[in-house]
Structure prediction request, 210 residues.
Amino acid sequence: MKKFVIAVLLSGTMMGITGLAEDRVFQIDPVHSSVQFRIRHLYSTVVGRFNKFDGTISGDPANPASMKVSASVDVTSIDTANGAREKHLRSPDFFDTDHHPTATFESTKTTLGNKKDSGSVTGKLTIRGITKDVTFQGQFLGSGVAPQSRDRAGFHATTTLNRFDFGVAFNGALTNGMTLLGNEVELILDIEAVETSAATGQAGDKPAAK
Prediction:
């Protein structure tokens, strides 16, 4: 859904890489990032993830209002450690991936938080062809040059969605008045991004496998 993606990235980049007055572009490194979700099932919680996603963070780090996030998630890559469940989640009961294989996020506003290295990113999230405004809250985890690479930056961000807002409406009623699934879904983003060449759109290094 999630993708994604992608929330406090902007405020974090701005705070962690200072003293610059030019636009920079950071590409999400999927090898060192994750897009996860949590939803209630009966009396417990199911955790899943999307294995394929990408996105960029761009703008002038010295000017938070200029920072932009653009991200997409391959919804067909949903992974809950259960093949039968994943097949159902791809069906029209849930994501209908035959018609809507991709979820996207485009930021519209970045706001710094009251706590150090915190902030929020608001934008347009599209799932199943339905677009809604959502706000991610998150934290900048730091930045710097990694071994044999260009600048990297890390972020953690979350938001909670009502899945019915996006047409993900399958459920089941139980005899005690409860429902099979909760309406709210928590999205959890852990993002590491590497600086790219704005002219070519290529990452400054190849993501390591470890």
The domain at 9-196 is CATH 2.40.128.110 (Lipocalin).
